[in-house]
Amino acid sequence: MTPVAAHTASQADPAAAAPAGPLGEHGVTLLDLLSYIYLENDRPEKAAVLLAALDELGLADARLRVALALAQLRSGKPETALATLERVALRDGVSAAFHLVRAQALIALQRNAEAEAAMRAYVALRTGQQPPPSR
Predict the structure, then answer these.
(1) How much is the pTM?
(2) 85 vs 89: CA distance, rounded Å
(3) How far apart are CA 63 and CA 88, in angstroms?
(4) What are the tens digits of pLDDT across the range 31-72?
């Protein structure tokens, strides 16, 4: 196939242009689902391993990174969860789920004032209000 024909073919079918990646076409979705099943069945360590692998491969989006922080928190590693959330905030921005997991991690570390501010931000984002300024 000539370069022009290959370019034309890739324009017609964008999925054919991009390689499926190291995990194949549905690999990320499969690992995401498996990590969810592990979290729901009280196996957060296994979920954390899968989600960390996706993150290391550069295949995790903000939602998967927040799920990784949740798995780390449920594995009894709130400091690691906060570090993961810090990376999420720097790379992807914050969401309501981000603030909820952050509040839980801060409570686990007995940083109650910060946890209260994170919960306020969570509630504000969930209700569509402007988050209150942190104290």
Answers:
(1) 0.79
(2) 6
(3) 9
(4) 999 999 999 999 999 999 999 999 999 999 999 999 999 999
